[in-house]
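Box S1 | Example of a co-folding query
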Amino acid sequence: MKQSVTFIPTMREVPSDAEIRSHQLLLRAGFIRQNTSGIYSYLPLGKKVLDKIEVIIREEMEAIDAVEVLMPAVQQAELWQETKRWYTYGPELFRLKDRHGREFALGATHEEVITSLVRDVVNSYKQLPLTMYQIQTKFRDEQRPRFGLLRGREFIMKDAYSFHASEESLDEKYQDMKRAYTNIFTRLGLNFRAVIADGGSIGGTGTHEFMALSDIGEDTIAYSETGTYAANIEMAEVGNDYPKSDEPLLEMEKVATPDQHTIDEVASFLDVDPSQCIKTLIFNIDGELVVVLGRGDHEINDIKLKNLLDATEVDFANERDVFELLSCEVGSIGPVKLPVGVKVIADHAVAAVVNGVTGANKDGFHLKNVNPERDFAVDEYADLRFIEEGDIAPDGEGTIKFAKGIEVGHIFKLGTTYSEPMEGTYLDENGRAKPYAMGCYGIGVSRIMSALAEQFNDENGLKWPKHLAPFDIHLVPINLKNESQKELADNLYRLLKSYRFDVLYDDRSERAGVKFADSDLIGLPVRLTIGKKAAEGIVEVKFRDTGETTEWQIEEITEKLQQYFERQ
Ligand code: ATP
Ligand code: MG
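Box S1 (continued) | Returned holo structure for adenosine-5'-triphosphate
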Protein backbone atom coordinates (compact mmCIF):
# COMPACT_ATOMS: atom_id res chain seq x y z
CA MET A 1 0.00 0.00 0.00
CA LYS A 2 1.36 3.37 -0.96
CA GLN A 3 1.25 5.77 1.94
CA SER A 4 0.20 8.63 -0.35
CA VAL A 5 -3.09 6.93 -1.23
CA THR A 6 -4.08 5.61 2.16
CA PHE A 7 -5.35 7.53 5.19
CA ILE A 8 -2.93 7.74 8.10
CA PRO A 9 -3.42 11.13 9.77
CA THR A 10 -0.50 11.11 12.23
CA MET A 11 -0.17 13.82 14.85
CA ARG A 12 2.91 15.32 16.49
CA GLU A 13 1.08 16.72 19.49
CA VAL A 14 -0.30 14.60 22.29
CA PRO A 15 -4.09 15.09 22.24
CA SER A 16 -4.98 16.91 25.44
CA ASP A 17 -7.84 14.62 26.48
CA ALA A 18 -5.90 11.38 26.03
CA GLU A 19 -4.57 10.41 29.46
CA ILE A 20 -2.95 7.05 28.84
CA ARG A 21 -0.27 5.91 26.40
CA SER A 22 -2.34 3.54 24.31
CA HIS A 23 -4.99 6.18 23.75
CA GLN A 24 -2.41 8.83 22.87
CA LEU A 25 -0.47 6.54 20.56
CA LEU A 26 -3.46 5.06 18.71
CA LEU A 27 -4.67 8.61 18.02
CA ARG A 28 -1.26 10.04 17.17
CA ALA A 29 -0.30 7.12 14.92
CA GLY A 30 -3.56 7.43 13.00
CA PHE A 31 -5.17 4.10 13.97
CA ILE A 32 -8.36 5.60 15.36
CA ARG A 33 -10.09 8.96 15.48
CA GLN A 34 -12.64 10.12 18.02
CA ASN A 35 -16.05 11.19 16.75
CA THR A 36 -17.54 12.03 20.10
CA SER A 37 -17.13 10.84 23.68
CA GLY A 38 -16.57 7.07 23.69
CA ILE A 39 -17.28 6.75 19.96
CA TYR A 40 -14.48 6.19 17.46
CA SER A 41 -13.75 5.56 13.81
CA TYR A 42 -11.25 2.83 13.07
CA LEU A 43 -8.95 4.13 10.33
CA PRO A 44 -7.18 1.83 7.83
CA LEU A 45 -4.34 0.87 10.19
CA GLY A 46 -6.70 0.24 13.11
CA LYS A 47 -9.07 -1.76 10.95
CA LYS A 48 -6.26 -4.04 9.81
CA VAL A 49 -5.22 -4.78 13.40
CA LEU A 50 -8.84 -5.48 14.37
CA ASP A 51 -9.18 -7.88 11.45
CA LYS A 52 -6.10 -9.81 12.59
CA ILE A 53 -7.39 -10.03 16.15
CA GLU A 54 -10.71 -11.30 14.80
CA VAL A 55 -9.06 -14.01 12.70
CA ILE A 56 -7.46 -15.50 15.82
CA ILE A 57 -10.72 -15.34 17.74
CA ARG A 58 -12.68 -16.97 14.90
CA GLU A 59 -10.16 -19.80 14.55
CA GLU A 60 -10.32 -20.63 18.25
CA MET A 61 -14.13 -20.41 18.34
CA GLU A 62 -14.54 -22.71 15.34
CA ALA A 63 -12.07 -25.15 16.98
CA ILE A 64 -14.54 -25.70 19.83
CA ASP A 65 -17.57 -25.97 17.53
CA ALA A 66 -18.91 -22.50 18.12
CA VAL A 67 -20.61 -21.28 14.94
CA GLU A 68 -20.70 -17.69 13.76
CA VAL A 69 -23.91 -15.72 13.38
CA LEU A 70 -24.71 -12.02 13.21
CA MET A 71 -27.69 -10.87 15.22
CA PRO A 72 -29.50 -7.54 15.07
CA ALA A 73 -28.16 -4.53 16.94
CA VAL A 74 -31.67 -3.07 17.11
CA GLN A 75 -33.62 -5.12 19.64
CA GLN A 76 -37.29 -4.84 20.50
CA ALA A 77 -38.06 -3.81 24.08
CA GLU A 78 -40.47 -6.75 24.49
CA LEU A 79 -37.56 -9.20 24.64
CA TRP A 80 -35.85 -7.20 27.36
CA GLN A 81 -39.16 -6.98 29.19
CA GLU A 82 -39.41 -10.77 29.31
CA THR A 83 -36.26 -10.95 31.47
CA LYS A 84 -37.11 -7.68 33.26
CA ARG A 85 -33.77 -6.25 32.18
CA TRP A 86 -35.66 -3.48 30.39
CA TYR A 87 -36.35 -2.17 33.91
CA THR A 88 -33.13 -3.19 35.71
CA TYR A 89 -30.37 -2.56 33.16
CA GLY A 90 -30.45 1.16 33.85
CA PRO A 91 -29.16 4.13 31.86
CA GLU A 92 -26.35 2.16 30.21
CA LEU A 93 -28.90 0.79 27.75
CA PHE A 94 -29.39 3.07 24.74
CA ARG A 95 -33.14 3.18 24.14
CA LEU A 96 -35.02 4.49 21.14
CA LYS A 97 -38.46 4.53 19.53
CA ASP A 98 -39.50 3.80 15.99
CA ARG A 99 -41.91 5.98 14.01
CA HIS A 100 -44.86 4.14 15.53
CA GLY A 101 -43.69 4.77 19.08
CA ARG A 102 -42.55 1.20 19.66
CA GLU A 103 -39.57 0.92 21.96
CA PHE A 104 -36.19 -0.59 21.13
CA ALA A 105 -32.72 -0.90 22.59
CA LEU A 106 -29.39 -0.79 20.84
CA GLY A 107 -27.73 -4.11 21.63
CA ALA A 108 -25.60 -3.90 24.77
CA THR A 109 -25.47 -7.69 24.92
CA HIS A 110 -27.49 -10.46 23.28
CA GLU A 111 -28.79 -13.00 25.82
CA GLU A 112 -32.41 -12.08 25.09
CA VAL A 113 -32.08 -12.05 21.32
CA ILE A 114 -30.26 -15.36 21.09
CA THR A 115 -32.58 -17.07 23.57
CA SER A 116 -35.58 -15.99 21.53
CA LEU A 117 -33.86 -17.21 18.38
CA VAL A 118 -33.03 -20.61 19.85
CA ARG A 119 -36.30 -21.27 21.67
CA ASP A 120 -38.21 -21.06 18.37
CA VAL A 121 -36.13 -23.82 16.83
CA VAL A 122 -34.46 -25.98 19.45
CA ASN A 123 -37.00 -28.06 21.34
CA SER A 124 -35.35 -31.44 21.82
CA TYR A 125 -32.33 -32.61 23.81
CA LYS A 126 -31.19 -34.12 20.50
CA GLN A 127 -30.48 -30.63 19.14
CA LEU A 128 -28.23 -29.75 22.08
CA PRO A 129 -25.57 -28.66 22.90
CA LEU A 130 -25.39 -25.65 20.62
CA THR A 131 -22.91 -22.77 20.72
CA MET A 132 -23.11 -19.65 18.59
CA TYR A 133 -21.00 -16.52 18.51
CA GLN A 134 -20.84 -13.22 16.73
CA ILE A 135 -18.42 -10.33 16.37
CA GLN A 136 -20.43 -7.18 16.47
CA THR A 137 -20.70 -3.57 17.55
CA LYS A 138 -22.18 -3.16 21.02
CA PHE A 139 -23.70 -0.04 22.51
CA ARG A 140 -23.49 0.94 26.17
CA ASP A 141 -24.02 4.46 27.41
CA GLU A 142 -21.17 4.17 29.93
CA GLN A 143 -21.12 6.66 32.76
CA ARG A 144 -17.44 7.36 32.22
CA PRO A 145 -16.30 6.54 28.70
CA ARG A 146 -12.54 6.89 28.77
CA PHE A 147 -9.10 5.68 27.83
CA GLY A 148 -9.93 5.48 24.13
CA LEU A 149 -11.07 2.02 23.12
CA LEU A 150 -10.80 0.66 26.65
CA ARG A 151 -14.17 1.99 27.69
CA GLY A 152 -16.22 3.07 24.71
CA ARG A 153 -19.93 3.69 24.33
CA GLU A 154 -19.83 1.94 20.97
CA PHE A 155 -17.34 -0.94 20.85
CA ILE A 156 -16.71 -4.28 19.20
CA MET A 157 -17.35 -7.45 21.14
CA LYS A 158 -17.17 -11.13 20.41
CA ASP A 159 -20.05 -12.66 22.30
CA ALA A 160 -20.82 -16.37 22.39
CA TYR A 161 -23.75 -18.20 23.94
CA SER A 162 -24.12 -21.89 24.60
CA PHE A 163 -27.23 -24.00 25.21
CA HIS A 164 -27.26 -27.33 27.01
CA ALA A 165 -29.46 -30.18 28.16
CA SER A 166 -27.45 -30.67 31.35
CA GLU A 167 -25.14 -28.93 33.81
CA GLU A 168 -22.38 -31.39 32.87
CA SER A 169 -22.62 -30.37 29.24
CA LEU A 170 -22.43 -26.70 30.27
CA ASP A 171 -19.40 -27.45 32.47
CA GLU A 172 -17.69 -29.11 29.53
CA LYS A 173 -18.28 -26.17 27.20
CA TYR A 174 -17.18 -23.77 29.91
CA GLN A 175 -13.86 -25.62 30.15
CA ASP A 176 -13.58 -25.61 26.33
CA MET A 177 -14.14 -21.86 26.36
CA LYS A 178 -11.60 -21.35 29.12
CA ARG A 179 -9.02 -23.18 27.02
CA ALA A 180 -10.04 -21.35 23.84
CA TYR A 181 -9.71 -17.99 25.61
CA THR A 182 -6.32 -18.98 26.98
CA ASN A 183 -5.26 -19.86 23.42
CA ILE A 184 -6.61 -16.59 22.06
CA PHE A 185 -4.85 -14.34 24.55
CA THR A 186 -1.66 -16.39 24.32
CA ARG A 187 -1.69 -16.16 20.53
CA LEU A 188 -2.32 -12.44 20.76
CA GLY A 189 0.86 -12.19 22.81
CA LEU A 190 -0.83 -10.42 25.70
CA ASN A 191 0.60 -10.69 29.18
CA PHE A 192 -2.59 -11.88 30.87
CA ARG A 193 -4.08 -13.91 33.67
CA ALA A 194 -7.36 -15.80 34.02
CA VAL A 195 -8.89 -14.86 37.36
CA ILE A 196 -11.88 -15.96 39.42
CA ALA A 197 -14.54 -13.30 39.03
CA ASP A 198 -17.77 -12.14 40.63
CA GLY A 199 -20.66 -14.23 39.43
CA GLY A 200 -23.26 -12.17 41.24
CA SER A 201 -26.01 -14.31 42.73
CA ILE A 202 -25.00 -17.23 40.50
CA GLY A 203 -21.56 -17.09 42.10
CA GLY A 204 -19.34 -20.07 42.70
CA THR A 205 -16.60 -21.00 40.29
CA GLY A 206 -18.92 -20.29 37.38
CA THR A 207 -17.12 -17.25 36.04
CA HIS A 208 -13.63 -16.20 35.08
CA GLU A 209 -12.25 -12.94 33.77
CA PHE A 210 -9.23 -12.69 31.53
CA MET A 211 -7.09 -9.74 32.52
CA ALA A 212 -4.38 -8.11 30.45
CA LEU A 213 -1.87 -6.93 33.04
CA SER A 214 -1.32 -3.20 32.97
CA ASP A 215 -0.77 -0.44 35.50
CA ILE A 216 -3.64 1.53 34.03
CA GLY A 217 -6.10 -1.37 34.44
CA GLU A 218 -9.29 -0.57 36.33
CA ASP A 219 -9.40 -3.97 38.06
CA THR A 220 -7.18 -5.23 40.84
CA ILE A 221 -6.07 -8.84 40.72
CA ALA A 222 -5.03 -10.72 43.83
CA TYR A 223 -2.66 -13.51 42.91
CA SER A 224 -0.38 -15.87 44.72
CA GLU A 225 3.28 -15.11 44.18
CA THR A 226 4.30 -18.75 44.21
CA GLY A 227 1.01 -20.64 43.70
CA THR A 228 -1.62 -20.61 40.98
CA TYR A 229 -4.41 -18.73 42.76
CA ALA A 230 -5.62 -15.58 40.99
CA ALA A 231 -8.89 -13.74 41.53
CA ASN A 232 -10.43 -10.37 41.00
CA ILE A 233 -10.00 -8.58 44.32
CA GLU A 234 -13.79 -8.29 44.42
CA MET A 235 -13.95 -12.05 44.84
CA ALA A 236 -10.69 -13.18 46.43
CA GLU A 237 -11.64 -15.23 49.49
CA VAL A 238 -9.97 -14.79 52.83
CA GLY A 239 -9.65 -17.72 55.25
CA ASN A 240 -10.99 -17.44 58.81
CA ASP A 241 -7.85 -18.54 60.55
CA TYR A 242 -7.36 -15.61 62.92
CA PRO A 243 -5.33 -16.34 66.07
CA LYS A 244 -7.17 -15.27 69.23
CA SER A 245 -5.18 -14.04 72.22
CA ASP A 246 -5.95 -15.72 75.57
CA GLU A 247 -5.54 -12.55 77.63
CA PRO A 248 -8.31 -12.10 80.24
CA LEU A 249 -11.45 -10.21 79.24
CA LEU A 250 -11.50 -6.82 80.95
CA GLU A 251 -14.48 -4.80 82.06
CA MET A 252 -16.07 -2.68 79.38
CA GLU A 253 -15.44 1.04 79.86
CA LYS A 254 -16.87 4.16 78.21
CA VAL A 255 -14.23 6.79 77.34
CA ALA A 256 -14.52 10.31 75.94
CA THR A 257 -13.02 10.67 72.47
CA PRO A 258 -13.82 14.27 71.54
CA ASP A 259 -13.51 15.04 67.82
CA GLN A 260 -12.05 11.58 67.05
CA HIS A 261 -14.04 10.07 64.21
CA THR A 262 -11.99 7.80 61.95
CA ILE A 263 -10.49 4.49 63.11
CA ASP A 264 -7.00 5.94 62.80
CA GLU A 265 -7.89 9.00 64.88
CA VAL A 266 -9.54 6.94 67.61
CA ALA A 267 -6.76 4.32 67.63
CA SER A 268 -4.03 6.89 67.99
CA PHE A 269 -6.02 8.89 70.59
CA LEU A 270 -6.50 5.75 72.72
CA ASP A 271 -3.04 4.45 71.88
CA VAL A 272 -4.18 1.10 70.47
CA ASP A 273 -3.52 -0.57 67.14
CA PRO A 274 -6.28 -0.12 64.52
CA SER A 275 -6.56 -3.93 64.48
CA GLN A 276 -7.86 -3.66 68.08
CA CYS A 277 -10.79 -1.57 66.87
CA ILE A 278 -14.07 -2.96 65.57
CA LYS A 279 -15.31 -0.93 62.66
CA THR A 280 -19.09 -0.58 62.51
CA LEU A 281 -20.73 0.23 59.20
CA ILE A 282 -24.40 0.54 58.42
CA PHE A 283 -25.50 -0.55 54.98
CA ASN A 284 -28.76 -0.13 53.22
CA ILE A 285 -29.30 -3.56 51.66
CA ASP A 286 -32.36 -3.70 49.43
CA GLY A 287 -34.02 -1.14 51.70
CA GLU A 288 -33.10 -2.80 55.04
CA LEU A 289 -30.52 -1.25 57.40
CA VAL A 290 -27.90 -3.86 58.28
CA VAL A 291 -24.99 -3.45 60.71
CA VAL A 292 -21.73 -4.79 59.34
CA LEU A 293 -18.66 -5.23 61.52
CA GLY A 294 -15.06 -5.53 60.42
CA ARG A 295 -11.68 -5.18 62.06
CA GLY A 296 -10.37 -1.59 62.12
CA ASP A 297 -7.47 -2.30 59.78
CA HIS A 298 -9.61 -4.18 57.23
CA GLU A 299 -11.84 -2.94 54.40
CA ILE A 300 -15.32 -4.36 53.98
CA ASN A 301 -16.00 -5.71 50.48
CA ASP A 302 -19.54 -4.79 49.46
CA ILE A 303 -19.61 -7.41 46.70
CA LYS A 304 -19.06 -10.20 49.24
CA LEU A 305 -21.82 -8.65 51.29
CA LYS A 306 -24.11 -8.52 48.30
CA ASN A 307 -23.40 -12.16 47.41
CA LEU A 308 -23.77 -13.33 51.02
CA LEU A 309 -27.22 -11.77 51.32
CA ASP A 310 -28.17 -12.50 47.72
CA ALA A 311 -29.00 -8.79 47.49
CA THR A 312 -29.61 -6.55 44.51
CA GLU A 313 -28.60 -3.16 45.94
CA VAL A 314 -25.94 -2.60 48.57
CA ASP A 315 -25.11 0.92 49.61
CA PHE A 316 -24.00 2.81 52.70
CA ALA A 317 -26.99 3.98 54.73
CA ASN A 318 -27.36 7.74 54.60
CA GLU A 319 -26.54 9.84 57.66
CA ARG A 320 -30.17 10.61 58.34
CA ASP A 321 -31.11 6.92 58.50
CA VAL A 322 -28.13 6.23 60.78
CA PHE A 323 -29.14 9.06 63.08
CA GLU A 324 -32.72 7.84 63.16
CA LEU A 325 -31.56 4.34 64.10
CA LEU A 326 -28.91 5.18 66.71
CA SER A 327 -29.25 8.90 67.54
CA CYS A 328 -25.58 9.58 66.89
CA GLU A 329 -23.18 10.49 64.08
CA VAL A 330 -21.57 7.88 61.82
CA GLY A 331 -18.13 8.34 63.54
CA SER A 332 -19.45 7.12 66.92
CA ILE A 333 -21.51 4.06 66.08
CA GLY A 334 -20.82 0.64 67.58
CA PRO A 335 -22.40 -2.80 68.01
CA VAL A 336 -23.16 -2.65 71.75
CA LYS A 337 -26.84 -2.23 72.71
CA LEU A 338 -28.22 -1.93 69.22
CA PRO A 339 -32.00 -1.62 68.84
CA VAL A 340 -33.62 -5.06 68.77
CA GLY A 341 -34.31 -6.56 65.39
CA VAL A 342 -31.34 -5.00 63.61
CA LYS A 343 -29.38 -7.62 61.70
CA VAL A 344 -25.65 -7.74 62.58
CA ILE A 345 -23.16 -9.40 60.28
CA ALA A 346 -19.46 -9.55 61.05
CA ASP A 347 -16.30 -10.47 59.27
CA HIS A 348 -14.55 -13.57 60.70
CA ALA A 349 -11.69 -11.42 62.01
CA VAL A 350 -14.03 -9.70 64.49
CA ALA A 351 -14.57 -12.97 66.37
CA ALA A 352 -10.89 -12.99 67.34
CA VAL A 353 -10.79 -9.44 68.76
CA VAL A 354 -10.21 -9.41 72.52
CA ASN A 355 -10.79 -6.25 74.57
CA GLY A 356 -11.48 -4.18 71.47
CA VAL A 357 -12.54 -0.57 70.89
CA THR A 358 -15.82 0.46 69.28
CA GLY A 359 -18.06 3.49 69.00
CA ALA A 360 -20.48 3.99 71.95
CA ASN A 361 -23.51 5.09 69.90
CA LYS A 362 -23.10 8.44 71.64
CA ASP A 363 -21.35 11.35 69.96
CA GLY A 364 -17.83 11.91 71.32
CA PHE A 365 -17.56 8.56 73.14
CA HIS A 366 -16.09 5.13 72.47
CA LEU A 367 -16.11 1.86 74.40
CA LYS A 368 -12.94 0.05 75.47
CA ASN A 369 -12.61 -3.66 76.35
CA VAL A 370 -15.49 -4.68 74.14
CA ASN A 371 -15.74 -8.43 73.48
CA PRO A 372 -17.85 -10.17 70.85
CA GLU A 373 -20.59 -12.44 72.23
CA ARG A 374 -20.12 -11.07 75.78
CA ASP A 375 -21.01 -7.47 74.87
CA PHE A 376 -22.84 -7.76 71.59
CA ALA A 377 -24.46 -10.45 69.47
CA VAL A 378 -23.69 -11.29 65.88
CA ASP A 379 -26.27 -12.95 63.63
CA GLU A 380 -23.72 -14.28 61.17
CA TYR A 381 -19.95 -14.38 60.73
CA ALA A 382 -18.71 -14.50 57.15
CA ASP A 383 -15.79 -13.64 54.90
CA LEU A 384 -16.56 -9.99 54.22
CA ARG A 385 -13.27 -8.21 53.87
CA PHE A 386 -11.01 -7.40 50.96
CA ILE A 387 -7.94 -9.58 50.75
CA GLU A 388 -4.67 -7.72 51.32
CA GLU A 389 -1.13 -8.04 50.02
CA GLY A 390 0.75 -10.39 52.32
CA ASP A 391 -2.32 -12.47 53.22
CA ILE A 392 -1.99 -16.21 52.70
CA ALA A 393 -3.64 -17.31 49.43
CA PRO A 394 -7.01 -19.00 50.06
CA ASP A 395 -5.68 -22.35 48.81
CA GLY A 396 -2.79 -22.03 51.27
CA GLU A 397 -0.22 -21.81 48.47
CA GLY A 398 1.95 -18.69 48.78
CA THR A 399 1.19 -15.13 49.75
CA ILE A 400 -0.98 -12.61 47.96
CA LYS A 401 0.32 -9.85 45.72
CA PHE A 402 -1.72 -7.32 43.74
CA ALA A 403 -1.57 -6.37 40.08
CA LYS A 404 -3.74 -4.16 37.90
CA GLY A 405 -5.57 -5.62 34.95
CA ILE A 406 -7.70 -4.69 31.95
CA GLU A 407 -10.62 -7.09 31.56
CA VAL A 408 -10.37 -8.36 27.98
CA GLY A 409 -12.62 -11.39 28.32
CA HIS A 410 -15.27 -12.84 30.57
CA ILE A 411 -16.79 -16.32 30.62
CA PHE A 412 -19.90 -17.04 32.61
CA LYS A 413 -22.17 -19.96 33.45
CA LEU A 414 -25.65 -18.50 33.33
CA GLY A 415 -27.61 -21.63 34.21
CA THR A 416 -31.30 -20.99 33.56
CA THR A 417 -31.30 -17.26 34.43
CA TYR A 418 -32.47 -16.35 30.93
CA SER A 419 -34.06 -19.55 29.65
CA GLU A 420 -36.47 -19.74 32.57
CA PRO A 421 -38.16 -16.33 32.32
CA MET A 422 -38.05 -16.51 28.52
CA GLU A 423 -39.45 -20.04 28.46
CA GLY A 424 -36.60 -21.38 26.40
CA THR A 425 -37.18 -25.09 26.89
CA TYR A 426 -36.40 -28.46 25.32
CA LEU A 427 -37.94 -31.88 25.83
CA ASP A 428 -35.63 -34.30 27.65
CA GLU A 429 -35.38 -38.05 27.02
CA ASN A 430 -38.55 -38.60 29.02
CA GLY A 431 -40.47 -35.96 27.11
CA ARG A 432 -40.38 -33.45 29.98
CA ALA A 433 -39.94 -29.77 29.17
CA LYS A 434 -36.88 -28.22 30.81
CA PRO A 435 -35.20 -24.82 30.49
CA TYR A 436 -31.84 -24.85 28.70
CA ALA A 437 -28.71 -24.49 30.80
CA MET A 438 -26.81 -21.59 29.25
CA GLY A 439 -23.37 -20.00 29.21
CA CYS A 440 -22.19 -16.67 27.82
CA TYR A 441 -18.70 -15.72 26.84
CA GLY A 442 -17.48 -12.23 25.88
CA ILE A 443 -14.29 -10.76 24.47
CA GLY A 444 -13.63 -7.04 24.12
CA VAL A 445 -12.26 -7.02 20.57
CA SER A 446 -11.70 -3.27 20.29
CA ARG A 447 -10.55 -3.11 23.91
CA ILE A 448 -7.87 -5.69 23.01
CA MET A 449 -6.39 -3.28 20.47
CA SER A 450 -5.89 -0.75 23.28
CA ALA A 451 -4.58 -3.39 25.67
CA LEU A 452 -2.02 -4.46 23.04
CA ALA A 453 -1.02 -0.84 22.43
CA GLU A 454 -0.66 -0.44 26.19
CA GLN A 455 1.69 -3.45 26.41
CA PHE A 456 3.64 -2.91 23.19
CA ASN A 457 5.09 0.59 22.96
CA ASP A 458 8.06 2.77 23.80
CA GLU A 459 8.63 6.52 23.98
CA ASN A 460 8.66 6.79 20.17
CA GLY A 461 5.47 4.93 19.46
CA LEU A 462 3.80 1.57 19.01
CA LYS A 463 5.67 -1.72 18.62
CA TRP A 464 3.31 -4.23 17.03
CA PRO A 465 4.03 -7.92 17.34
CA LYS A 466 4.78 -9.36 13.90
CA HIS A 467 1.52 -11.25 13.49
CA LEU A 468 -0.75 -8.36 14.47
CA ALA A 469 0.97 -5.40 12.83
CA PRO A 470 -1.16 -3.65 10.20
CA PHE A 471 1.69 -4.15 7.69
CA ASP A 472 4.80 -6.31 7.88
CA ILE A 473 7.25 -3.83 6.47
CA HIS A 474 7.62 -0.07 6.28
CA LEU A 475 9.53 0.80 3.12
CA VAL A 476 10.99 4.29 3.50
CA PRO A 477 12.99 5.91 0.72
CA ILE A 478 14.67 9.06 2.04
CA ASN A 479 14.69 11.07 -1.16
CA LEU A 480 12.43 10.05 -4.01
CA LYS A 481 13.95 12.72 -6.28
CA ASN A 482 17.10 10.65 -6.28
CA GLU A 483 16.86 8.28 -9.28
CA SER A 484 18.59 5.28 -7.79
CA GLN A 485 16.66 5.55 -4.51
CA LYS A 486 13.36 5.74 -6.34
CA GLU A 487 14.21 2.87 -8.62
CA LEU A 488 15.38 0.64 -5.81
CA ALA A 489 12.35 1.48 -3.68
CA ASP A 490 9.89 0.81 -6.53
CA ASN A 491 11.59 -2.47 -7.38
CA LEU A 492 11.73 -3.59 -3.80
CA TYR A 493 8.08 -2.72 -3.30
CA ARG A 494 7.09 -4.92 -6.25
CA LEU A 495 9.42 -7.72 -5.19
CA LEU A 496 8.22 -7.83 -1.59
CA LYS A 497 4.60 -7.81 -2.67
CA SER A 498 5.27 -10.72 -4.99
CA TYR A 499 6.62 -12.57 -1.95
CA ARG A 500 3.33 -11.77 -0.23
CA PHE A 501 4.73 -9.37 2.31
CA ASP A 502 2.35 -6.65 3.30
CA VAL A 503 4.29 -3.44 2.67
CA LEU A 504 3.54 0.14 3.54
CA TYR A 505 5.52 2.22 1.04
CA ASP A 506 6.19 5.76 2.25
CA ASP A 507 6.12 7.44 -1.16
CA ARG A 508 5.33 10.87 0.30
CA SER A 509 7.67 13.79 -0.39
CA GLU A 510 8.25 14.47 3.30
CA ARG A 511 11.53 15.16 5.08
CA ALA A 512 13.41 12.10 6.33
CA GLY A 513 12.86 13.19 9.94
CA VAL A 514 9.10 13.26 9.49
CA LYS A 515 9.08 9.87 7.77
CA PHE A 516 11.16 8.26 10.52
CA ALA A 517 9.09 9.77 13.30
CA ASP A 518 5.88 8.55 11.64
CA SER A 519 7.41 5.15 11.06
CA ASP A 520 8.38 4.73 14.74
CA LEU A 521 4.97 5.99 15.79
CA ILE A 522 3.09 3.48 13.61
CA GLY A 523 5.44 0.74 14.77
CA LEU A 524 5.63 -1.84 11.97
CA PRO A 525 8.04 -4.69 12.85
CA VAL A 526 10.61 -3.96 10.11
CA ARG A 527 11.63 -0.69 8.49
CA LEU A 528 13.64 -0.79 5.28
CA THR A 529 15.28 2.56 4.63
CA ILE A 530 16.55 3.35 1.14
CA GLY A 531 19.16 6.08 1.37
CA LYS A 532 22.63 7.01 0.20
CA LYS A 533 23.71 3.41 -0.43
CA ALA A 534 20.87 2.72 -2.85
CA ALA A 535 23.20 2.79 -5.84
CA GLU A 536 25.22 -0.04 -4.23
CA GLY A 537 22.05 -2.06 -3.66
CA ILE A 538 22.24 -1.68 0.13
CA VAL A 539 19.22 -1.18 2.32
CA GLU A 540 19.22 -0.15 5.98
CA VAL A 541 17.08 -2.39 8.19
CA LYS A 542 15.61 -1.43 11.54
CA PHE A 543 13.70 -3.81 13.82
CA ARG A 544 11.07 -1.93 15.76
CA ASP A 545 10.94 -4.18 18.82
CA THR A 546 14.65 -4.16 19.65
CA GLY A 547 15.65 -0.96 17.86
CA GLU A 548 18.52 -2.97 16.32
CA THR A 549 19.74 -1.79 12.89
CA THR A 550 21.73 -3.52 10.18
CA GLU A 551 22.36 -3.39 6.44
CA TRP A 552 21.21 -5.94 3.90
CA GLN A 553 22.14 -6.40 0.26
CA ILE A 554 19.16 -6.27 -2.06
CA GLU A 555 19.80 -9.90 -3.13
CA GLU A 556 19.47 -11.30 0.38
CA ILE A 557 16.47 -9.30 1.51
CA THR A 558 13.63 -11.70 0.73
CA GLU A 559 15.41 -14.62 2.34
CA LYS A 560 16.27 -12.65 5.47
CA LEU A 561 12.72 -11.36 5.76
CA GLN A 562 11.29 -14.83 5.34
CA GLN A 563 13.50 -15.96 8.18
CA TYR A 564 12.51 -13.04 10.36
CA PHE A 565 8.80 -13.58 9.75
CA GLU A 566 9.27 -17.33 10.07
CA ARG A 567 7.81 -18.09 6.66
CA GLN A 568 8.73 -20.97 4.38
P1 ATP B 1 -16.55 -3.81 32.55
O1 ATP B 1 -16.52 -4.38 33.95
O2 ATP B 1 -15.19 -3.46 32.03
O3 ATP B 1 -17.58 -2.75 32.36
P2 ATP B 1 -18.43 -5.77 31.71
O4 ATP B 1 -18.43 -6.74 32.82
O5 ATP B 1 -19.51 -4.79 31.60
O6 ATP B 1 -17.00 -5.03 31.63
P3 ATP B 1 -19.15 -7.80 29.77
O7 ATP B 1 -20.56 -7.42 29.75
O8 ATP B 1 -18.73 -9.08 30.38
O9 ATP B 1 -18.27 -6.60 30.36
O10 ATP B 1 -18.61 -7.70 28.27
C1 ATP B 1 -17.68 -8.61 27.68
C2 ATP B 1 -16.37 -7.91 27.33
O11 ATP B 1 -16.60 -6.73 26.56
C3 ATP B 1 -15.60 -7.42 28.53
O12 ATP B 1 -14.80 -8.44 29.08
C4 ATP B 1 -14.75 -6.30 27.94
O13 ATP B 1 -13.56 -6.82 27.41
C5 ATP B 1 -15.62 -5.76 26.83
N1 ATP B 1 -16.26 -4.49 27.21
C6 ATP B 1 -17.26 -4.29 28.11
N2 ATP B 1 -17.60 -3.01 28.18
C7 ATP B 1 -16.81 -2.35 27.29
C8 ATP B 1 -16.70 -0.99 26.89
N3 ATP B 1 -17.48 -0.05 27.42
N4 ATP B 1 -15.78 -0.67 25.95
C9 ATP B 1 -14.99 -1.63 25.40
N5 ATP B 1 -15.05 -2.92 25.73
C10 ATP B 1 -15.94 -3.29 26.66
MG1 MG C 1 -19.60 -2.78 32.16
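Residues 109, 140, 142, 151-152, 155, 157, 407-410, 442, 444, 446-447 surround adenosine-5'-triphosphate (ligand 1) (CB under 6 Å). The chain has a mean pLDDT of 96.
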